[in-house]
Amino acid sequence: MNALNAINGIINSIKGIIDSINCIVNATNGIFNATNGIINAINGIVNVTNGIVDAMNGIINSIYDIVKDIHTIFEAINGIFKAKNDIKNAIYGISKSIHSIVNGLNNAISETIYAIVKCINGIVKAVQLYLWQCFNSNYANIMAINGIYMSFLMPFMALLCHFCCHLWHL
User: Fold this and answer.
1) Helix, strand or coil, per DSSP, at residue 1
2) What are the TM regions of this chain, as residue ranges (predicted)?
3) In angstroms, how far is CA 124 from the centroid of its own chain?
4) What does the pLDDT read at residue 97?
């Protein structure tokens, strides 16, 4: 009976050892499962982090596009102001040209009138000289005719040339 008890004790001990080994195997499997869970959790964290990075890149790209659009708007506004300045400069140039034309015409007309008055004055003086010389010698008559020629035709030609020069400069 003692021998049976001893064999049963040995069998129970072997069973206990096998159970202990099973517990160790189960514990090892649990450790592996826990390690896999940790690895999966780390992978999940990495995926979430990648998603956050992608979202931040999207936000940065959106901000860049907004800044680019704002820059384009400012360039357009700047172009409007530049066009306004160009139009203002063009209007100023046109008004300056008109002012120059008016001044040139005023000068040409006033100088032409002055020259005509001078010619008429010369003709009157020549006629007076001619009439006065009619009562003198023939030489005086020739000089009076020359005076009419010099006082009318020569200034008239000079006046015509002068007026043409003014028109040329306009």
Assistant:
1) coil
2) 148-169
3) 67
4) 84
Q: For residue 138, is pLDDT > 70? A: no
Could you give the CA distance from residue 57 to residue 65 in angstroms, rounded to a whole number? 12
Q: Write the DSSP string, 120-142.
A: HHHHHHHHHHHHHHHTS-HHHHH
| H-only helix segments in the chain | 2-134, 138-169
Residue 163 has pLDDT above 70, yes or no: no
| Rg of the Cα atoms in the chain | 60
Residues whose CB is less than 8 angstroms from the CB of residue 144 and which lie 6 or more positions away in sequence, other chains included: 126, 129, 130, 133, 134
pLDDT tens column, 29-54? 888 888 888 888 888 888 888 888 88
Q: What are the tokens at 127?
A: 């006629």
* CA neighbor of 148 nearest in space, from 169, 128, 168: 128
Instruction: With 0.85 as the threshold, say if the pTM is over it.
Output: no
Distance from C-alpha of 153 to C-alpha of 147, rounded to nearest angstrom: 10
